[in-house]
Amino acid sequence: MNEELNALRDQIDGVDQQLVALLARRLALVAEVGEVKSRHGLPIYAPDREAAMLARRRDEAAQQGVPPDLIEDVLRRVMRESYSSENDSGFKCVNPSLRQIVVVGGAGQLGRLFVNMFRLSGYQVAVLERDDWGQADALLSQAGMVVVAVPIENTCDVIDRLTSLPPDCVLVDLTSIKQRPLSHMLAAHAGPVLGLHPMFGPDVSSLAKQVVVCCHGRDEAAYQWLLDQMRIWGVRLHSVAAADHDNAMSLIQALRHFTSFVYGVHLCDEQADLKRLLALSSPIYRLELAMVGRLFAQDPALYADIILSSPLNVQMIRRYHQRMGQAISFLESGDRQRFIDTFHKVSEFFGDYAGQFLRESKLLLAQAHDARHHESL
């Protein structure tokens, strides 16, 4: 039996080695593609091309008896690596005549990411930090664009100091709230103004498929080049009014972070045995626990600022707390039918999205399960 297994395993090892060689060749071709895209200013993410390619590979897989979902999973992981490697080729500069870009807070994590992307695109970039304001006038007086990438609590104070920018300078902020920073930018600067909110952390390896929210302030034509530049990076731009953005962030960010925070506090106060929870967990609970743990691996000041950035957030959290209390009353009274009726009501609210989220979550759970390592017993 062992000889038979070893012979088969040797063949599998050989196939795996061929796969590694093929992946290396594919990445080399991707690097050439990146160079062509860089020369011609093409976005690194082409959604129509990606969708068509995946559809063809799925058909080909089915014809050869390979599960289509398997080949799509493999290719999506390979493409993620490919998008990251395309950064090495740099990007075409959409506005080569632009004067120097100044990133206020460019030494911070998110600031560094954008400094790097601008430099990869051929722009001259200067970083202005808190201790550098002695040279601020010299830098800002010649700036073609100023990007404010400082903590939320300092954003408006920094913007208020930017009152002597050149009239054609584009003023941009990267804060996760938009109404207050946008109003301060419009008051401080008479030129082009744009509010941006990158919906990703600074640890991403590529901006392909990443969402950046745009809240237009003034003179959109003057910063259209910046939007085009971000599209070349692979960014998906979504324009929305500042008030609508902040309302949405109360759910997307503040409430989500707060519930993770409270769940972490609860686990801590209950002195939960995390090792045992992981050993006994289903894939979905492990994923949920990972998202809670992820929060507590990061900067507490950042999340405090996000949650406390707007009264809207506290109001939203308060309403959530009230609904939590109402749901607890179902349990305390043993009202099973009311629970079921409420469940059906919410299910109807989600509509077709419920099925879509079920399919998406199955993929995430499968990936979480695949990544799990069990020690030998």
TrEMBL record:
It is found in: Cytoplasm. Residues 99-361 form the Prephenate/arogenate dehydrogenase domain. Pathway: Amino-acid biosynthesis; L-tyrosine biosynthesis; (4-hydroxyphenyl)pyruvate from prephenate (NAD(+) route): step 1/1; Metabolic intermediate biosynthesis; prephenate biosynthesis; prephenate from chorismate: step 1/1. It comes from the Bacteria. Signal peptide: none annotated. The keyword Cytoplasm applies. The keyword Acetylation does not apply. PANTHER family: PREPHENATE DEHYDROGENASE (PTHR21363), PREPHENATE DEHYDROGENASE [NADP(+)] (PTHR21363:SF0). This is T-protein. The gene is tyrA.
